[in-house]
Design goal:
Rossmann fold, two-stranded antiparallel sheet, 9 strands, binds adenine
Length: about 350
C-alpha cells in the first residue's frame, strides 16, 4: 500500500490547498529564502516592467513543495497580470491548450506544472506559441484537413518540473530564464514558520520553531503542514501552547522522527539495508519491493535522502550510508568501512 505522507511535497486535500494558499507570499518582498533566485527574478521583473513588455518564459526546477507554484503566482502579481494554471498530464491533446492560449491577455502568466510530462503532440503545439506567439491548429481530418494560423497575445509561460533532465532540448531551449530551487536551510524555514504562526495567530515557543524547522525536510510546504498538525495537537492536549516538548510529541505521533524522516523515508532505507545489504541497488528494485511508484521515490523521497547523506547514488545504484545505519540503530556491515 502506498504510504500517505504528511511530509510529502504534494498537497493532500482541498483543505490543505486552501491552507497553503492562505500562507503563500504574494510578492517577492514577502518571499523568504532562495535569495539568489529572488534577486535575479526581481531584476527580470523590473526590466520587463521598464520596457512595458511581458517577462520571458521561465523554467523553475527543483523538488516538490519548495515554492514553484507560489513563484508563478508572484511573477503574475508583480507584473500586474493574471495567472492561468494547468499541468503536463492534464493537457492531453493540442485542443486542450488551444482554448487556454487564445484566452490569454498580453502579459498573462500560463503556469504549467510537471511540464516534463506534456504529451509530444501538445509540446510541439506549444513551440510556435512560445516562440512566435501563434499556433497552427488543424481542423478536420484527412482530405478536409485545414490548418489555421491563430495569433496569440504575448504571454509568459512559467514551466515547473521536478526533473529538468527529462525535458526535451527543443522545449528547454524556448525558455529564457531558468531557476533552480534547492532545499531551504533551517534558519529560513524558521523564519517561514514564524511568519505562518503569526498569520495563523498561534503561539509557538522559539525552541518549538527550531524543532519544527529541523524536521521539515528543507521544505516550506512541509513546515506549514507540520505547523498545522502541531497546532491541532497543542489545542487538544496542551491548551494551545506549542512548546518544544509538545511539538516533539505531536511529530512523533505523526511518524516524523528527529531527522525529519517519515515512514516512507525509513522504509526506503530499511529496504536498501535489509533486502539489499546496504546496496548498491537500482531504484526500480526498491520501488518494486515497496510496491511504490518509481516516480514517487525519485521525486519525493530520494532528493532529500541524498541531500542529507542518508544514501548515495553510484553508477550501480543507491547505497545506504553509515548515517543511515546509525539513524536506524543498525550496525553497518562488517568489513564495510571502505564502502562509506
Ligand atoms: N510560505 C511558503 N514558502 C514561503 C516562502 N518562501 N516565503 C514566505 N512564506 C512562505
Amino acid at each position: 500500500m502506498p504510504v500517505e505522507r504528511i511530509i510529502s511535497g504534494k498537497a493532500l486535500s482541498e483543505e490543505e490547498e486552501h491552507f497553503n494558499r492562505s500562507l503563500r507570499p504574494r510578492t517577492l518582498d514577502e518571499y523568504i529564502g532562495q535569495r539568489a533566485m529572488v534577486d535575479k527574478l526581481r531584476i527580470s521583473v523590473q526590466a520587463a516592467r521598464n520596457r512595458s513588455e511581458p517577462i520571458e518564459h521561465v523554467l523553475l526546477h527543483g523538488p516538490p513543495g519548495l515554492g514553484k507554484t507560489t513563484l508563478a503566482h508572484i511573477i503574475a502579481h508583480e507584473m500586474g497580470a493574471r495567472m492561468v494554471q494547468s499541468s503536463g498530464p492534464a493537457l492531453v491533446r493540442p485542443g486542450d491548450l488551444m482554448g487556454i492560449l487564445t484566452n490569454l491577455e498580453r502579459g498573462d502568466v500560463l503556469f504549467i506544472d510537471e511540464v516534463h510530462r506534456l504529451a509530444a503532440a501538445v509540446e510541439e503545439f506549444l513551440y510556435p506559441a512560445m516562440e512566435d506567439f501563434q499556433v497552427d491548429f488543424v481542423l478536420d481530418k484527412g482530405m478536409y484537413a485545414k490548418t489555421i494560423n491563430v495569433p496569440l497575445k504575448q504571454f509568459t509561460l512559467v514551466g515547473a518540473t521536478t526533473r529538468a533532465g527529462l525535458l526535451t532540448a527543443p522545449l528547454r531551449e524556448r525558455f529564457g530564464i531558468f531557476h533552480h530551487l534547492d532545499f531551504y536551510p533551517a534558519e529560513e524555514l524558521q523564519e517561514i514558520i514564524r511568519r505562518s504562526a503569526r498569520m495563523l495567530e498561534v503561539e509557538i515557543e522559539s525552541q518549538a520553531v527550531v524543532e519544527l524547522a529541523r524536521r521539515s525536510r528543507g521544505t516550506p510546504r512541509t513546515a506549514n503542514r507540520l505547523l498545522r498538525r502541531v497546532r491541532d495537537y497543542a489545542q487538544v492536549k496542551a491548551a494551545g501552547q506549542i512548546t518544544a516538548a509538545v511539538a516533539d510529541e505531536a511529530l512523533l505521533v505523526e511518524g516524523v522522527d528527529q531527522a525529519g524522516l517519515d515512514e516512507l523515508d525509513r522504509k526506503v532505507l530499511h529496504t536498501i539495508i535489509d533486502f539489499y545489504h546496504g546496496g548498491p541497488v537500482g531504484i526500480e528494485a526498491i520501488a518494486a519491493t515497496l510496491n511504490e511508484e518509481v516516480d514517487t521515490l525519485v521525486d519525493m523521497v530520494e532528493p532529500f535522502l541524498l541531500k542529507t547523506g542518508f544514501i548515495s547514488r553510484t553508477s550501480k545504484g543507491r547505497r545506504a550510508s553509515k548515517r543511515a545505519y546509525d539513524h536506524l540503530g543498525l550496525a553497518p556491515p562488517r568489513g564495510g568501512q571502505g564502502m562509506f
